[in-house]
Design brief:
binds S-adenosylmethionine; S-adenosyl-L-methionine; Rossmann fold; alpha/beta; 8 helices; rRNA processing; cytoplasm; EC 2.1.1.166; about 240 residues; SAM-dependent_MTases_sf; globular
Length: about 240
């Protein structure tokens, strides 16, 4: 991939490669020290700052786009779990979204600074009226891409965390099926063991190709991956599913 070449190491560094070491300060927990050390030595963090992206996560969708050709100029995109805005920034640039003609709609329950060309909704996506608000923000148009980087804060209880993430992915997938144009794409963050057999099966029925992606910007030591479904088959006029 272009980015992994540019970075040489694909953005992954072993502890021995670390250039900046952070001493544990009084009152700072070891986990925080490790996090700080990792941030300071992360080439994606430096690149995000240099290129004006709000998050290192921006490179995950950038790399998936470079590899799988998700975006084209003029496409409409929905970004679920958009804060602080890296994915929306990448999408707005790739589709040529402008404040006069916005093509990207993002939603998050956190506050976000405005992004030119992006309509931002401050809202919990799991609330019943969220899908209708997103559809209204799309101005009655169907979307070409629905992407979700949403994740709940973990509770520490594995089974609960698993169920919560599966639920988020399922409602994101239902929404995608409702708003996508034929040919559209769906991208969602999943965690290892997080993509339920049933959900995969459902997506395979609705999309021509469904696969998992682990972009180089996604940390190797994280169980995070992305579920990518491309080539939405569309929904019949009577609301029935289109099948093979
Ligand atoms: C990893 S961050 C997204 C980073 C983003 N892709 C970027 O590049 O800046 C995940 C986001 O999902 C949001 N989120 C999680 N659950 C959500 C929900 N139910 N409704 C709206 N946003 C949600 C969180 O608030 C958080 O900002």
């Amino acid at each position: 991939m272009a980015n992994s070449k540019a970075l040489g190491t694909g953005g992954r560094k072993s502890a021995r490669d670390l250039k900046i070491r952070v001493k544990t300060a009084k009152g700072r927990k070891i986990a925080s020290t490790k996090w700080l050390e990792r941030q300071l030595n992360d080439p994606y963090v430096a690149r995000a700052r240099a290129e004006g992206y709000r998050s290192r996560a921006a490179f995950k969708i950038k790399e998936m786009d470079e590899r799988h050709k998700l975006f084209k100029r003029g496409m409409r995109v929905v970004d679920l779990g958009a804060a602080p805005g890296g994915w929306s920034q990448v999408a707005a640039k790739a589709v040529g979204s402008t404040p006069e003609h916005p093509l990207v709609v993002g939603i998050d329950y956190l506050d976000m600074d405005p992004i030119p060309g992006v309509i931002l909704l401050k809202k919990d996506f799991t609330e019943d009226d969220a899908p209708a608000m997103l559809e209204a923000a799309l101005g009655g148009h169907k979307a070409d891409v629905v992407m979700s980087d949403m994740a709940w804060p973990t509770t520490g209880h594995r089974a609960t965390d698993h169920l919560r993430i599966v639920h988020l992915i399922e409602i994101a997938a239902d929404f995608a099926i409702q708003v996508l144009k034929p040919g559209g794409s769906f991208v969602a963050k999943v965690f290892q063991g997080g993509t339920e057999h049933e959900l995969l099966h459902m997506l395979k029925r609705h999309f021509r190709s469904t696969f998992h992606a682990k972009p180089p910007a996604s940390r190797a030591d994280s169980s995070e991956a992305y579920l990518v479904a491309m080539g939405f088959k569309g929904v019949e006029e009577d609301g029935g599913d289109v099948d093979d």
